[in-house]
Design brief:
mainly alpha; transmembrane helix; DUF6535; 2 domains; 6 helices; transmembrane; DUF6535 domain-containing protein; 205 residues; 0% strand; membrane
Length: 205
């Protein structure tokens, strides 16, 4: 009876051994993937939270800066109302003196002041940095999504671990963490440029 029990238990053991040997090193890769998934999830989640906040602020800030640029751009051009008033005064003076109104083209001597030019330059750079910040945040979110999804689509444990390690090494090689830390600095620079232009704008007005 004991021999029958051993014989009856042999097929399941052979099946278990064959499944275990079907993927060499699976017992080594599984703990690695468990720790790696926890690390990656925490890292990507923190990046997503930071990038979402930056995207919202950059979008609102860019819209505000654009409104200021539209208003300040008017100071770079000659006011058409003033031009019309000047032309009408010339015509009225000529009619008062009994001379014929001249239709010669009027040469414009308008030149925007340097402060006005500086304000527009500062605000255009501010808008550029803000848009660059938003673009970088979107790219980081896309890469983070690819970083998590790409290894999980592989059924083999060893291949999944190799794929994750490859992406992790690429992340270190491209210094993605440094890029993520630099994105808020772009937004800070944009704010500094905007407030510098705002002070000059109030001085002009």
């Amino acid at each position: 009876m004991f021999s029958f029990f051993v014989t009856a238990q042999q097929p399941p053991d052979r099946t278990l051994n064959s499944s275990a040997l079907s993927e060499p090193g699976s017992k080594i890769w599984e703990p690695y993937l468990e720790l790696a998934d926890k690390y990656d999830n925490d890292l990507v989640e923190s990046w997503r939270d930071d990038m979402d906040s930056l995207l919202i602020f950059a979008a609102l800030f860019s819209a505000s800066v654009t409104a200021f640029i539209i208003e300040s751009y008017k100071f770079l051009q000659e006011d058409q109302a003033d031009v019309m008033i000047t032309v009408l005064l010339q015509i009225s003076q000529q009619l008062a003196h009994g001379t014929q109104a001249s239709t010669a083209s009027r040469s414009s001597s308008f030149r925007p002041c340097r402060t006005t030019i500086a304000v527009n330059v500062l605000w255009v750079f501010s808008l550029s940095f803000s848009l660059a910040c938003a673009l970088a945040a979107v790219m980081v979110r896309q890469w983070a999504r690819h970083y998590l999804r790409s290894p999980r689509g592989i059924s083999s444990t060893s291949e999944r671990a190799r794929r994750r390690q490859f992406l992790f090494e690429r992340m270190k090689a491209w210094r993605l963490e440094l890029i993520v830390d630099t994105i808020p600095a772009l937004l800070h620079t944009s704010l500094i440029l905007f407030f510098a232009g705002l002070l000059l704008f109030f001085h002009v007005v």
